[in-house]
Amino acid sequence: MNKNTSEETDSSPRPMRQEQEPASEEVTEIARGIYRFQLPISMPGLGHVNCYALEDEKGLSLVDPGLPGHESWNALEARLKDLGTNFNHVHTAIVTHSHVDHYGGVHRLRDDYEVEVLTHSSFSSVFGTDDIMEDPDAASLDLADDDDIEKLREMLSRPTPWGTKREPPSVEELRKWSGSNTGADSKSFQVPKPSLTVEDSEEVTIGGRIWLALHLPGHTHDHLCLFDPVDGIFLSGDHVLPTITPHIGGMGNMEDPLAVFFNSLERTKEFSQVSLVLPAHGHPFNNLVERTDDIIQHHVDRLQLIRETGDSIGEASVNEYMKYLFKERSWGDMAASETYAHLEHLRILGEATPKEEKGIKTYKFA
After folding, report:
1. Alpha-carbon torsion angle 323, 327, 328, 331, nearest 10
2. Is residue 297 exposed (0-12), middle (13-18) or buried (19+ Cβ within 10 Å)?
């Protein structure tokens, strides 16, 4: 069986997905008092994060203010200047979920400008109490120091639940994200403590609008979306994206993240009155229900491919299954983590039988 199951070969050119596009310098008023601009990131499959500025009589609330580090911060400062404003007019940062490309800019906004931080009440590290970045020894490392960078990389090389060793970010990535030429420390990667939290279905006033807070976990355990029922605007974060499927990983703190995600997607389809979706990556779109169905079908297809692969290869490790689900260019921790989440979903359903030997998990199908 050919491990690259797609009709497209690894060497074939592929069109750039919206979410991979580099950050533009454009500032757009998407709706009354809602401005969209992009901050640069360089992460697997992503080239930018959308930051939304919501205007009210007190100033601005920023949704997902990007990565830590100078590149993102300088871009954020420039985009605010294009709006005719600056950091002094930002009063609140809203973080949709606990991934660093969404919360990284919060630390400096809070420390330098006393900005309030609003999240869902479950906001916390995706790794729970096992997050190495919550360890004071890790958080105090100086990322301008080569030895400290290597210490942090070694700490981040933790074992995965399926028995391999996680590949840490490169030295270049850590330096770029941290802005280490000013002596920044690794505290920038810690999940910030919110000053304001909301519960599911709670109404919250932001930017002169009343939004319905929606807890829609799956991509992370704490994912928050916001819905304005008057104008039909849906801030989707990473929950629903326009041209890629959000990563569902097996290294978080949910027992069956795929099942949780399926439930959240089914709930999302209830909001058929949405007229405009504002995602954290890619361009705004208006077919929320159709796009949600597409994402559900993608994972249904993935599950079926795993079943067929298991019938073909017999008992196999997570990395072996990964090579049938993903093209070689995508192999790595994220692909393995998503493969593991799908295998665990099938295990919980009673379809896959796990086994562990010398720390390595394998799965087989009857």
Report:
1. -70
2. exposed
- Which two three-digit tokens encode residue 73? 């911060």
In degrees rounded to 5, what are phi and psi of residue 254?
Answer: -110, 140
CA-to-CA distance for 228 and 203, rounded, in angstroms? Answer: 10
13: CB partners within 8 A, 6+ apart? none
Task: Tell me what pLDDT residue 188 has.
Answer: 73
Q: How far apart are CA 322 and CA 334, in angstroms?
A: 10
Cβ-Cβ contacts under 8 Å for 287 (sequence gap 6 or more): none
Mean pLDDT, 10 residues at a time, the chain of 366 residues: 39 78 97 98 90 98 94 96 98 97 95 97 79 57 69 78 86 66 59 96 98 98 98 98 96 94 98 97 98 98 98 97 95 95 98 96 94
* SS3 state of residue 36: strand
**Alpha-helical runs (H) found in the chain:** 70-82, 100-103, 106-113, 136-139, 146-156, 171-178, 257-268, 288-313, 318-325, 333-348
Strand order of the β-sheet with 316-317 is: 316-317, 360-365, 352-357
β 59-63/28-31 pair status: unpaired
Dihedral (Cα; 285, 287, 290, 293), 10-degree rounding: 50
34-43 and 46-56 beta bridge pairing: antiparallel
Q: What is the pLDDT of residue 341?
A: 98
N- to C-terminal Cα distance for the chain?
19
- Please report the domains of the chain, with CATH numbers, ordered by start residue: 18-125+191-295 (3.60.15.10), 132-189 (no CATH), 302-365 (1.10.10.10)
Q: Tell me what pLDDT residue 7 has.
A: 34
